[in-house]
Amino acid sequence: MKKIARLAVARPKAVIAGWLLLLALAVPFALQLEGALKTGGFSDPRGESVTAQRTLERAFDEAPNSLLVVLHSKDGAVQDAVGQAREAVQREGVSAVTDRTTHPEWLSEDGRTTFLQVGFTSDNTTVQNLVPDLQDDVRDAVGDKVEVDVTGAPALDYALNVHSKEDVTRAEMIAFPVLFVVLLLVFRSVAAMVVPLLMAGVTLMATQAIGYGMTQFTDVNSLFTNIVSMVGLAVAVDYSLFIIKRFREELADGHAVPDALDRTMRTVGHSVVFSGLAVVVALSALFIPRAMSFTSIALGGVAVSLVAVAIAVTLLPAVLSLLGHRINWGTLRRRKNTTGKAASRKAGKDGRPGNRFTRRPGLVLAALAVAFAALAAPAAQLTLRVPVASADILPADDSARIGMEHIKQDIGVREMFPVQVVLSADRDQSDALLKSATDIASYARSAPGADKVQSVEPFSRSLDDPASLDAAARTALDQLWTQDGDNLVTRVVITPSADPDSSSAHHLVDDLRDHLDDRTQPGVAVQLAGATPTGSDFDDLVLRSAPLVVLSVALLSFLILLYAFRSVLLPLLALGFNIAVVGASLGALAMLTGNADNSINSVTPLMLFAVMFGLSMDYMVIMISRMRETYLGGATHREAVLGGLARTAGLVNGAAAIMVAVFASFTSAQISIVRELGISLAVAVVLDAVVIRRLVMPAALLLMGDRVWGRHRRTEQQSPASEQSPASGQPSASGQPSASGQPSAPEPVPATTATAAAADTSSRHPQLADHTTR
User: Residues 534, 672: contact at Cβ < 8 Å?
Assistant: First the structure.
């Protein structure tokens, strides 16, 4: 990293030219990203429901994708429009069209609503792209008196793509003006405010181009763009904030531009690399479930974090090298050094900042622990459930949602999303297959949450002679019993008594899975298919993956911080803090977005944990590095903790304000899962920056004493000035490094002198002092 940063400083124009060339190459690919993204991915690709659905499609020749064309008329003339709509939906790829003529129950009792089911042999993406044209063609055919809405899985996926793009655009338009104001308040300089926004823009554009490249090799969900904007804006602006602020401090301290940049990159630049690595490690854990939704989130988060770090250690130093003192151009007001000096001395000697809280750290920790536990308590009542047959995730005025709600309110969706028990066996085991289907159907009729049950049982005597049945009976039999190669396949169709995303339907699936094996004959394979089993399998995948995700993030983050700080206690503290924040954030989300069954999307908790775990390391690394630098400079443990807190408080507050602004902008999202993430992450950042870093962390450090500094803990025989901070790469109280890049052997410094020097640090850094006082 040092060599790269030095190259950026030595040849800034070449580095900037290289990034501009990369940006010019990236723009055409970035603009194609939206069209290459896919929806879906909220299923377990290895779950039994996916396997069972493939068996149904193959054995019963069912269309892999279908759309529902909903017709609604206020004057009751909808029946006359069915024939016109049937003709209008005909196009290449349509395999079957079914309507009320064969399913009379698809017409509402008042005759105002009905729908057509259009089956396609094409893949989901192709069918999605047909939705706008299909809807326009049917509307033209039936006229203005009939309302036409196209819904079904591909239509819902299409709407998710459209609204996801709108959400990102809206959030960025909200976030950038807010960031403009926040950065101007933090830096009080126009030039210093503009540079982080430019770095963020380059980061987003470059990552979107990388995302387009990823879509050429794997399926990427539309959540990719949301996570890139969320995490990318936060880390790109924060990393720029850390580096620019330290650079301005070094300039104010009288250092020449090259020296100021060198010192900045060896301290804060090194910390930024560690912070970025922590984000990458945390988000990489989302690859563990191996589901497209989680994989897409991980790809977006990892890619944008790596790009942000690369820009922070190359492009940003090059820009700062050319700007030099002009980074202070457009300063809004003059800073006063005396204020910062006074604040620093108070922090170092009597601990005035947070004095009421730091006098009794044990009491503070106990009170805050109770508060966090109370805030997290509602999270225990949350139900993790991915919506698989609901349009509630979409905005209320979306056509796909309106169509689904017409079916739900006027006709009922339960028959559209049955739970199907799929049984198969060798051809010579037809008796065992029939016996299993009969026993399962018998149990299902009395199962809690079941309404109607269809099985092959009424046709059991005609299986060997289906020609003896009339046409309607033969059609019904063909949909329940068939031959698939060398196997016989049958199914038991169960209509739930409640909607497919309800708790009742999920309990029915769980109950069936608990009792199917006991009612299945040897040699017969049994699986569940349908929307509710698919959602249940995905929820189970999340629950199975959660312990491994948490453990992997915790272990790798622990190792990173252990290497950074050479202390066992500090990484353990970081893990405890982050778990407390995530729990409290989920509790707050439960209170803010509570619904009838207290459910949230299954994706939200794991994503919140991974993103928050990575981003919170920024504050941990920056604050602890400054505290330890002060401690190793000769200050007492209390002076180091409170002095480091005072000197980094303004920086952390500014960084937190940036993150809150970014995440809060996504609370305006129309997609419910994005809105959930925006709310929970904004709450998490506030809790982490304001409560954990300002109150809980200093109280814990004061209570534990100087043993938190691990092997760098001073002894009477060890000169504090001889230590070096591995997280910053900067010698403490040792003067300048040698020509080889290693710190020269310093002379022992009396503790009183080192303490005074450390306490006076902020007086030499007016920008930092100003943030401290604010």
Answer: no
